[in-house]
Amino acid sequence: MSLLEIKNLHARVEEQEILKGVDLIINPGEIHAIMGPNGSGKSTLAQVLAGKEDYEVTEGEILYKGEDLLEMAPEERAREGIFMAFQYPVEIPGVSNVYFLKAALNAIRTHRGLEEMDAMDFLVYVREKMKVVKMDEALLNRPVNEGFSGGEKKRNEIFHMSVLDPVLAVLDETDSGLDIDALKIVADGVNSLRSEDRAFLVITHYQRLLNYIVPDVVHVLIDGRIVRSGGKELAFELEDKGYAWLEEPLGAGEPVGA
Amino acid sequence: MTTTMTASDTDRFVEVFEAFEKGLPASQPESLRKIRREAIGRFSDLGFPTIRQEEWRFTNVAPIARTPFSLKVATDTVKASSIQPFSYDGTIQLTLVNGRYVAALSQLHSLPEGVVVCSLNEALEKHPEKVEPHLGRLASFENHPFVALNTAFYGDGIFIWVPRNQVVEPPINLVLVGSPSAGPIAFFPRNLIVGGESSQVTVVEQYVTVGEGTYLTAPVTEIVAGDNAVVDHYKLQRESSEAFHMATFQLQLGRDSNVSSHSISWGGGLVRNDVNAVLDGQGGEATLNGLYMVEGTQLVDNHMRVDHVAAHCDSHELYKGILEGKSRAVFNGRIYVHPGAQKTDAKQTNRNLLISPDAICNSNPQLEIFADDVKCTHGSTVGQIDETAIFYLRSRGIGEAAARSLLTFAFAADIVERIKVGAVRRDLEEFLFRRLPKGDIVRQAV
Fold it and tell me: Does A100 contact B399 at a Cβ distance shorter than 8 Å?
């Protein structure tokens, strides 16, 4: 059974239709990349997967482990193993990064029938994970994302991901705005978590990330539809030619200039 | 809504004054009796405030005015076990029941030399020279009916006097219990805290209820901080929802003194806190923090006034409010910079979090500046929980109720963190964990 199956997904925010029939299948162990120009619907897809209520699904379905994902609350999705690294991680003054993670991890563990981790075990566990993303221990005790630099915020997302041990991780433009060192740290974080039962959906605007995270499948999302899928070479092709050559076939069957 | 106070509401108090005055201990000096008579005269003129008066526009005290309160109070209705939850290990504790000092419920450990901590009545007998220069002279009753009532009718209170250079390390815990037994009662505690030059003291003032029933407590606490003195004050208003609480807190700051006030209100049905700080010596610094969390039909009104009289003084105010149900909050903050108060640095912030769409907040910061070289800022916000943050927390596996509670706690956290007395901070945290849905998850996550 595939891990994630998106069928003919249509979604809109307020009155504007953004996703216009997305089909996508992700199997355990795979890394899928979604590329596309600005405004093509990449982030909307990520938000719909995570369960943001501002987006209304008007048609189609999403099956996750064979279950109807759209019926699940955002926290249920997280507990079932979906993790989304935010494009713009939210600052939460007054909530410490480490205690928040402990509460999140224990919510997930309880859901999976595991015992809650106590403070001591958690600290040992977390320190191990911090090494992967080369996180400064000071960021652990600070309020979530508060006063973090852009790079620190993205790294913190990868840190959260490694602590929460997801089954399906969605990275929403986690590479945007990163210098090469931070980009490598993010990529290392993902690569270290690669496994047979875990899948990734990496949404990116730039081909560069895919030099460090090698995808199994690359999809091109334009105007709310996946217009082309292929192997990792597709990313290089996009790098050379841009998106314009892919936008043409989309018009087929529809009035031009509508 | 009727807002008219009848003459008889006011007269009820005026009529009993004579009998009350006759019942005062013979030791009451004539100078203080005279002030009491002036105060009841002033109350008779003022009457109870109405919402037509600017300072009471959002706070309707008609329910207080029309309640026939008795001034006859019992002090034997409270068992030691009932106030045990408000005791702090190892600290000096003075307990007032219905405004009267009860020695059996108080613990007075040894004090540093020269420090006086006792009931106001005892102080008037044994140390009149320390009390009289201040008592009744700081908090003005000229325009405040409840201060006038307190000044006329105070029956007892707490007196704390710290001599020059003396430091009292452990906090002094004042527990003011309201315990009505037969019908509504009113009482008027009067507390006076005097810190001598270069002295230091920390005082906790807790207002609590034991038992059930309506009552009015209208306390006045006055703090006189001498030159270079440090006074930290914590007030916890945790009475039952049947309590009316009309308090005035008056601070007088001497040269280079440093006074902090932390006012926490979660109890009471109708609560008004007037906090007035007068900075009249150069280099004085006042920190006025507050947190209120109300639900149901509670109303809490914080009325702040900071007078910058002398130059080179700082004042920092941060009040935060969390409103649930159909509760109401009023914040009125006035900073008054007098001519000559140059180099004043005054900051005032009021932030409100509306949990429920039915809660109402009226926030009104005011600046009046009559000096030309000053730094004054004020800001006021009323908002809801950030839904983006809620989604972020939920997307990590935290349930919605817990996410809301976590963010609510986080909103309060910068006031909680500013509380230096561990026992008070823990009390407040425990209250928040109890009050907030899924508080056990919050407890784990902060």
Answer: no
Kindly determine whether residue B388 and residue A73, on different chains, have CB atoms separated by under 8 Å.
Answer: no
Helices (H) and strands (E) in chain A, counts: 9, 12
CA end-to-end distance (rounded Å), chain A:
39
**Cβ–Cβ < 8 Å for A228, A40:** no
Chain A hits for B393, CB-CB cut-off 8 Å, are: 92, 100, 104
pLDDT at residue A249, rounded to an integer: 54
pLDDT of residue B1: 39
Helix (H) or strand (E) holding A50: helix A42-50
Minimal C-alpha gap between B234 and chain A (Å): 22
Interface of A with B (CB under 8 A): 50-53, 73-75, 77-79, 83-84, 86, 89-90, 92-96, 99-108, 111, 143, 160, 164
Class of A4-250 in CATH? alpha beta
Q: How many angstroms away from the CA of B396 is the closest CA of chain A?
A: 6
End-to-end CA distance of chain B: 44
Secondary element (H or E) of residue B277: strand B270-279
Cα B288 to Cα B304: distance, rounded to the nearest angstrom: 9
Question: CB neighbours of B344 closer than 8 A, spacing ≥ 6?
Answer: B308, B311, B312, B313, B314, B315, B337, B371, B374, B375, B376
Q: In this structure, are residues B156 and B191 in contact, taking their beta carbons and an 8 Å threshold?
A: no
Q: Sorting pLDDT into bands at 50, 70 and 90, what band is B5?
A: low
Whether B392 sits inside 8 A of A99 (CB atoms) is no
User: Are the CB atoms for B268 and B297 separated by under 8 Å?
Assistant: no
Parallel, antiparallel, or unpaired for β B360-369 and B230-237?
Answer: unpaired
Chain B residues lying within 8 Å of A53, measured CB to CB: 391
CB-CB neighbors (< 8 A) of B397 in chain A: 75, 78-79, 104-105, 107-108, 111, 164
Query: Measured between beta carbons, which residues in chain A are less than 8 angstroms from residue B386?
Result: 90
Of the candidates B158, B186, B184, which has an alpha carbon nearest to the alpha carbon of residue B172? B158
Residue with tokens 């049905």: B269
Interval A141-168: pLDDT, tens: 899 999 999 999 999 999 999 999 999 9
Does the complex come out with an ipTM higher than 0.90?
A: yes
* pLDDT band of B110, cuts 50, 70, 90: confident
Cβ of A96 within 8 Å of Cβ of B446? The answer is yes
Residue contact A94–B402, C-beta within 8 A: no
Chain B: closest CA distance from residue A103 (Å): 6
DSSP letter (8 states) at residue A137: H
CB contact under 8 A, B400 and A100: no
Distance of residue B219 Cα from the nearest chain A Cα, in angstroms: 34
CB contact under 8 A, B394 and A73: yes
Any idea what the Cα angle at residue B253 is, between residues B39 and B317, rounded to 5°? Answer: 95
Cβ pair B438, B399 in contact under 8 A: yes
Confidence class for position B25, pLDDT limits 50, 70, 90: confident
How far apart CA B277 and CA B333 sit, in angstroms, is: 11
Residue A47 sits at the vertex; the CA angle it makes with A42 and A52, to the nearest 5 degrees, is: 155
Residues of B in contact with A104 (CB under 8 A): 393, 396-398
pLDDT of B73 > 50? The answer is: yes
Beta carbons within 8 Å of B426's beta carbon, 6+ residues apart: none
Contact B434, B443 (CB under 8 A): no
- Average pLDDT of B258-284? 98
Q: Can you list the residues of chain A whose pLDDT is less than 50? A: 250-258
- Angle between helical axes of A119-132 and A180-193 (0-180°, round to 10): 120
For residue A116, give the chain B residue with the closest CA. B444
